[in-house]
Amino acid sequence: MDEHSAHEGDIEKGSISLWGGIAMGTGVMIGAGIFALTGQIAELAGPLFPLSFVAGALVTALAAYSYIKMSNAWPSSGGIAMILQRAYGPGVVAASASLLMALSMIINESLVARTFATYTLRIFDLEKNGLLVSGLALALIIFAYLVNAAGNRSVSGFSLFMSAIKVGGIAVFAVAAIWVSGFSSGAFAEPISLSSADALLASVAFSILAFKGFTTITNSGGEIVDPHKNVGRTILYSIAICIVIYLMVAVAVGSSLNISEITAARDTSLAAAARPALGDIGFYFTIAIAISATTSGVIASVFAVSRMLTMLTEMKMIPHSHFGMNGGIRSHMLIYTVVIAGSLAVLFDLSRIASLGAFFYLIMDMLVHWGVFRHLRKEIGARASVLLAALAADAVVLAAFTAAKLQSDPAIVAYAVIGIGVVFVLEWLFLSRTRAAKTPSDEHKH
C-alpha cells in the first residue's frame, strides 16, 4: 500500500467535474481575501493599487505552472505534500514546507474569522473594539468546528452553494459601484507617484494571498474528472475569473473612496465604499455578502486543513498525540486546527495575520519551485525558464515585502522568522527520532 492510499481510500475518484472544480477554486479564492486585503493593498500601493492585483495574478499564474505540471503527471489528493515529497524525498525539507502550507491555511482561517467579525461589528460601529472582534472571530471558528465535526458532505455542498452567492454578490456590488461613481473620482482622481514603486511591489505579497486558494484545486487533484487535463484548466480558469472580479472590486472601491478614506476603513473598505456609491442598501448588502463569504470560507478552510494535517500524519511527516482524546486522527486534527486558528485570531490583528500568512506561503512556494526545478523538471517536461521566473518573482516580492515590514512592523518579521525556524527544527527532531526508532527493529529483522 503506498503512502497516499490510506488517505485516498476515502476519496471518490472523478467526483468533481471541470465546472465543479472551478466553482470550488473560485469559491475558496474569492473569499475573505478581497474583503480584508483590498484596504491594506491600497494603503501600501496608493492610487495604483488595482495594478497590485494584476501583478499578483501574474505571479500566481507563474507559480501555478509547477503545480499544474506536477498534477498533470501525478494527479493526487496528496497535493502539495505529494509534490514536495517527490521533489525532496521524505525528509525535513518536504515535511517542513508541507507544514508551512498547512500553517498558512490555518493563518488564513484566522484572517477570515477576524474579517467576519469586523464586517459584522461594522453594522453597530463597533469594529474598532479589539475584544469584541477577537471574541466574535473565535465564536465563528468554534461554529466551523461544530459544522465540520457533524460530517463532510454537508461541508462540501454548503461551500459550493455559498460560492455562487458570494461571487455573484461581489460582482453585483462592483458593477453597481462603478456605474454610480465612474472611473475618474475617488482615489483615481489623486496624483500618481512612481516613487513608491517599492511599496507597490510589497503590496503584491497581499495580492498573492487573495489568489493562493488555487492550491486547494491541487489538493483535490485525485477527485477531478480527467485530472491529467482538467486540473490545469481548473486552476487557470479560476485565476482568470478571480482577476476579473478583483479588478472590478478594486476599481469600485477606488472610484468611491480616496486613499485616506480607504486607509481609515482599512479592514472594512468594501462596506465603506458601498455607502457613498449605493447608500445604506448597498452598505448592508455588502456586509451581508461579507458575512456569508467569510462564514463559508472558515468552514471550508477548517475542512481542508484538517484533511491535509490528517494526510501529513498518515504519511509520517508530522508527529501526532491523542492527548487523551477519543476518536480518530481526523477528529483530533479538527481540534488542533481550531485551537491554533482561534489563538491567532485572538492574539493578532488582521494586518499581522495577513503578513504572517504571506511570509509562510511565499517560503513554501519557493521551495516547491526549487524542488521541481532541481529534481523533477525533466521527468515532468517542465521548462526551466518558467520555473526560475516563478522562483525569482516570489523572491522579489518577498524581499520588497520584508523591507516594507521591517520599516512599519519589524516584530512581525521576527515572528515569521522564528515561526519558520521552529517548524524546521521541530521537523528535524521528529524525523530524526522516527528514524532512530526504526533502526533497531530493522536491524533485528536482518
UniProtKB/TrEMBL annotation:
Q: Is Transmembrane helix a UniProt keyword of this protein?
A: yes
Instruction: Tell me any Pfam family this protein matches.
Output: AA_permease_2
> Membrane-crossing residues?
21-42, 48-68, 88-107, 130-148, 160-180, 235-257, 281-306, 327-347, 353-373, 385-406, 412-431
Compartments in which it is found? Cell membrane
Query: Which domain of life, per UniProt?
Result: Bacteria
Which InterPro entries does its entry note? AA/rel_permease1, APC_superfamily
Q: Cellular component per GO? A: plasma membrane
Q: Identify the keywords attached in UniProt to this record, alphabetized.
A: Cell membrane, Membrane, Transmembrane, Transmembrane helix
Q: How does it sit in the membrane?
A: Multi-pass membrane protein
Where is the major localization of this protein?
Answer: membrane
Name of the protein: Amino acid permease
Identify the species of origin. Answer: Aurantiacibacter atlanticus
Lineage, broadest ranks: Bacteria, Pseudomonadati, Pseudomonadota, Alphaproteobacteria, Sphingomonadales
